[in-house]
Design goal:
Shape: globular
Structural class: mainly alpha
Bound molecules: zinc ion
Strand content: 5-15%
Oligomer: single chain
Number of helices: 10
Order of helices and strands: HHHHHHHEEEHHEEEEEH
Largest sheet: 3 strands, antiparallel
Distance between the termini: 38 Å
């Protein structure tokens, strides 16, 4: 079918959306109007998040791009899933924030997420949204819930793990204890957070019927497993290839590129692999795990 956009021509569309033109809605193609409606919804939620100081400006722009791609691909159901992840993340980040700040492990900027964090957690999910839009099918829905489950469980595990009374152990060398907040460090509380968050995303996906042709209990199972596998991958990659540095001013071990206003010196790991890259890789692993598991079941 010829879309209204082609049949009307770009000139007419520009004319139609120019200010002060009468019968605006009559001239605008309906599908474009719907898309603008979806964009408006995403922008409205992102504005709320900025108001709540859960996003900074860069985070706002990245969230709109990611949210819109996901809304276009999967509609409300997919959008509710990424919103659930976001709300879980904000809630656990702000939970006992002052305590985390006092031990130096709180997220910076009052917990407001910036664009690298948004793209690390939602970037691959946005790609799946666009792929769903282009090709459709349950494969992308499975990849999407796996990625979201991994992002949610990793974020919740990190934030809850920081509150653990027991000292984290390194996932790759279980005898070794590391300071809270160290990438690759795991605690029982963090593991519990991983499972609960992954199961929550899986349950929401099942209730919303996000994956066509797969029974709801199986959706919960593959999403939960995707989240757990992604979260474990995050810890293993964090413990091994993630860049670990030391501050050249105060001498503290850090994972930041900047400390005390100066670039840090790398001690181990790969130069460009920071926490955000590790998160992105973990969401890809979680997505692949969910799809693979659904294929073998
Ligand atoms: Zn320092």
């Amino acid at each position: 079918m010829v879309s209204p956009v082609n049949s009307m021509g770009l000139g007419n569309i520009l004319l139609a959306i120019s200010p002060g033109h009468g019968a605006l809605t009559a001239l605008l193609p309906v599908d474009i109007l719907l898309d603008l409606g979806e964009l408006a919804i995403v922008v409205a939620f992102a504005l709320l998040a900025i108001k709540a100081r859960a996003l900074d400006r860069g985070g706002f722009l990245a969230s709109v791009a990611v949210g819109y791609a996901i809304f276009l691909g999967g509609g409300w159901a997919w959008f509710v899933i990424i919103m659930s992840f976001f709300i879980l993340g904000v809630a656990t980040t702000l939970f006992r924030y002052e305590y985390k700040k006092s031990i130096g492990t709180a997220q910076e900027k009052g917990g407001a997420r910036s664009w690298p964090n948004i793209l690390a957690n939602g970037g691959i999910a946005a790609v799946f949204g666009l792929a769903e839009l282009a090709f459709g099918g349950s494969a992308f829905a499975l990849l999407y819930i796996g990625a979201m489950s991994a992002a949610a469980s990793d974020t919740v595990a990190t934030e809850l793990g920081l509150l653990s009374k027991s000292v984290p152990r390194l996932i790759t060398r279980f005898g070794a204890r590391v300071p809270p907040g160290t990438s690759g460090g795991v605690t029982e509380l963090g593991l519990l957070g991983t499972i609960v968050a992954a199961a929550a995303i899986g349950t929401i996906a099942a209730v919303l019927g996000v994956v066509q042709g797969v029974p709801p209990y199986e959706v919960v199972f593959v999403a939960t497993m995707g989240g757990i596998v992604g979260s474990i991958a995050d810890s293993v990659i964090g413990a091994t290839v993630q860049r670990k540095s030391v501050c050249i001013v105060c001498g503290k071990a850090t994972e930041s590129l900047i400390h005390c206003g100066q670039p840090t010196r790398r001690q181990s790991g790969v130069v460009h692999i920071d926490n955000n890259i590790v998160n992105l890789l973990a969401t890809i692993v979680g997505a692949a795990a969910s799809l693979a598991l659904a294929l073998v079941l």
